[in-house]
Amino acid sequence: MSDNPSASWNRDSLLENFAAEVTSAAYAVALRHGVEGKWLDLQLELWEALKETVKKWEQEPPHFSAAPFLSRAFCLRLTVEDALLGTTTMMNAIIVQMMQVSGRQLEQAVGGFTEAHWLHVPAEGLNCASWIVGHAILTDRQVLEELDVPSLPAIPDEWPSLYEVRPDDGLAREYHSGQFILARFVTQRKALIRAVSETAADSLNRELEPPGEQRYNPLRGDEDNPLFAYRTLMEMVVNMSLYTSQLAGELCVLRQSLGKPIDNDWLL
Questions:
Q1: List of residues 6+ apart from 219 with CB closer than 8 A
Q2: Residue 215 gets which letter from DSSP?
Q3: Per the structure, how many domains does the chain have?
Q4: Alpha carbon distances (Å) from 239 to 95, 99, 177, 218, 227
């Protein structure tokens, strides 16, 4: 064990993020078995259970033969911890890769959608693809603003009113066309990746005042999503990348309800 309190805190923080990553992987397995109901309720329950499980992995490695789908997430955790013991530049590279992967997950989840598909609401408690991807754009913009990017990619003025808060009834509104929304997401994500790549690695360790859990943030909604409890800029970037993967998981439920194929490699 390290005598460095900062290193110990970083490992604890990464353990939290890792649990969220494992949740995304487990959710991908669950949705292939026809899970119904509120996706976030399931993810939060899995997150809490898996957080306790990975704590045990500090003393005992997981039995991958019993849970093969966890191997990728476990390797991710080891890679991130190795980066912390190495160079901060490596940490930047890993975060950029996470953003690239989660962005690609979301794009692939809506691949081949017609405008009718974009507005399809699969079940009570879920939302259409137009709202989900429009919402993902706003989370990216929050991170861009925290990074003090001087010029943000343009979006229409009405975007927050349409995509900020999850509609209670789940019904589709007068949203923009699906292709227009997806193009905006791709532009925002590219800008975010570029901004993180150009940010001095040490700057990402800046503590946020106030931290995420104490901020008014309408994007979080009424659910107590632990991914919004970030304390540093680095945690915010990583957690919002994982949040994109969660949104991609919701899109895969929607995709499954439309009878469209889901490639396991998108999420695992």
A1: 135, 138, 139, 142, 164, 228
A2: S
A3: 1
A4: 10, 10, 28, 16, 5
Give the integer Cα–Cα distance in Å for 41 and 30: 13
Question: Treating both helix axes as pointing N-terminal to C-terminal, what angle do 88-109 and 71-85 enclose, rounded to 10 degrees?
Answer: 150
Task: Give residue 226's identity as a one-letter amino acid code.
Answer: P
- pTM (two decimals): 0.70
pLDDT score recorded for residue 22: 53
Contact 152, 184 (CB under 8 A): no
For residue 77, report the phi and psi dihedrals to the nearest 5 degrees: -60, -45
Q: Is the pLDDT of residue 81 over 60?
A: no
CA gap 10, 176 in Å, rounded: 40
> Which of 28-32, 128-132, 240-244 shows the lowest mean pLDDT across its residues?
28-32
Kindly tell me the burial class for residue 53, based on how many C-beta atoms sit within 10 Å of its own C-beta (0-12, 13-18, 19 or more). middle
CA-only gyration radius of the chain, Å: 18
Max Cα–Cα distance, the chain, nearest Å: 57
Instruction: Compute the distance between CA of residue 149 and CA of residue 137 in angstroms, rounded to an integer.
Output: 15
Burial label for 127, CB within 10 Å (0-12, 13-18, 19+), is buried
Task: Look up residue 100 and give its two tokens.
Answer: 């690239």
Do residues 173 and 162 lie in contact, with contact meaning Cβ atoms separated by under 8 Å?
Answer: yes
Q: Which domain holds residue 64?
A: 5-266
> What token pair was written down for 132?
């989900």
CATH number at residue 185: 1.20.120.450
**DSSP of 10-52:** HHHHHHHHHHHHHHHHHHHHHHTTT--S-HHHHHHHHHHHHHH
DSSP character for 262?
A: -
Across-strand partners of 207?
232
